[in-house]
Amino acid sequence: MITLYDNAMSPFAQKVKMVLHEKGIAFKRVTPDLASPEKDFLDVSPLREVPALVDGDVSLFESTIITEYLEEQYPQIALMPRTPVDRARVRLLQSICDSQLEAIIFGMTEFIAFKRADGDVAASMLGKAKADIKHLLGWLESQLGTRAFFNGDAFGMGDIAVLPYMSTLALYKLGPAEGSSLDHWFKKAKAQPSFQRCIEDSKTEVGAFKESVARVYSGLWPRQYRNHRLDWFLRSGGFDIVADGYAKSTIRFSQLPFYTH
């Protein structure tokens, strides 16, 4: 059976779980302690991140790599569109959502949940986040066009790419405009059983997420400001926040892969 190293609050992990559920692939969930990861987890996920997947002798990390592997290894139920043009369009959606949109939501969470700053600094950066989100929602609306789903006529990989982020935006009261094409899509997509199973998983970890604030500020679990997240913080006026967090070991950057010498 496939083993998935998971954190139910992670949009990247939710992507992989939706693919597994949509394809009807049985799997076992393991939630690693990211503050004190065991060697077995690090052997599978050398960057100390979720999701990571073990399928027999195959070990993979990085969500899009995993979903592409599952699509090719288990092709009986296809989740990617048929034509090269549509497949490329879906990959563009994945790229923008996993970098641009994820970075903004991560940044908002740093202020809302982790209280990285308050006053004028927080207000300014949250305002920048809302403006960026409005821009990206417009872009997503244009990408959806007249399609029923981002994938085309039926739910698939394109929708899986967008759905976890849209769900979080809705929780932050920043979802699509009522009555828009994007709103109609969201109402259909979020009812998908594979996504509802992800939501059920996340409910069990809300308490652990709240406790993670104390772990971050104790230095046990510094938040990772990798590439796109760091980019958004710096261009949105958060240089001093990043410098302070790094000095206090509550922020970390990307690391070289762990391996056994």
Mind explaining what this structure looks like?
It is a single chain. With 261 residues, this protein is of the alpha/beta class. The chain folds into two domains: 2-73, Glutaredoxin; 84-202, Glutathione S-transferase Yfyf (Class Pi), Chain A, domain 2 (Up-down Bundle), CATH 1.20.1050.10. 57% of the residues lie in helices and 8% in strands. It is globular and about 50 Å long. The protein starts with a strand and ends in a 9-residue tail after the last strand. The mean pLDDT is 95.
Query: In percent, how helical is the residue content?
Result: 55-70%
What would the CATH topology of the largest domain be? Glutathione S-transferase Yfyf (Class Pi), Chain A, domain 2
The helix count comes to: 11
- For the record, the count of structural domains works out to 2
Please indicate the percent range of residues in DSSP E strands (runs of 2 or more): 5-15%
Summing up helix and strand content along with how strands pair, one would put the structural category as alpha/beta
State the major sheet: 4 strands, mixed
CATH class of the largest domain: Mainly Alpha
Q: Encode the helix/strand succession as letters.
A: EHEHEEHHHHHHHEHHE
Oligomer designation:
single chain
From the 3D coordinates, which CATH architecture of the largest domain would you assign?
Up-down Bundle
Count of DSSP strands: 6
- Low-pLDDT parts are none
Radius of gyration: 18 Å
Q: Order the strands across the largest sheet as they lie in space.
A: 2-1-3-4
Query: What form results from the Cα inertia axes?
Result: globular
Taking the alpha carbons of the first and last residues, their distance comes to 29 Å
Rounded average pLDDT: 95
